[in-house]
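It would be a great kindness if you could assist me with a short task in structural biology. The full record is reproduced below for your convenience:
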Amino acid sequence: MREAIRITSVNVGKAETIVHGGTSRTTGICKRPLAGPVAVSESGLDSDEVLDAKHHGGPDQAVYAYSVEDYDWWAAETGRDFAPGLFGENLTIAGLPGNLYIGDRLLIGDVVLEATAARIPCATLAARMGDRGFGMAFRKAERPGVYFRVLNPGFVTAGDAVTVVESESGNATVLDLFRFAYENSHDADTLRAYLETPLAERMRNKVEAALAAL
């Protein structure tokens, strides 16, 4: 176990329409901090709306977390303010390790979260940031944040201590999976090792397809 870390903000989003580049889209990416305890179930945070269920949310990607330190890096690189929830994360966490292994767990009171995938940027994130090129910037930064499934429900509150429990497998990191999403060539043994981890279903499907294509 690593030393405890801490939630600085718990964020949820309602359906909002954002306009960028002449295109409008209704999305739940605009997440804002909540005060007090927020219930967490296998489907995510209470009152958090997921509108594009094909690509977002679901039991394997129920909670998205991003680190305070990575936001600090973005702010230093761009000179912009990066407020909690800007990237659409549910939990903004100080001290969250930048490259968890798939299968690593976060213990937050009664809540147990299991790392399942990296966040892959989409056009909605670019629209949220008001920058068509932000997807490429996000890719180059290699600071994707982490999706989690909920193994045990409960409540989370800003200020809660978090403990990371490391996975015993150690077959794939979040950054491994982030890079995999952009690679044009793959190694069969590496892909098989990825499949031995508790991947999110969407990512598992992509890895299985890449393996089948070899």
Remarks:
- The first helix runs from residue 68 to 78.
- The longest strand covers residues 5-13.
- Residues 5-168 form a domain with the M1 Pyruvate Kinase; Domain 3 fold (CATH 2.40.33.20).
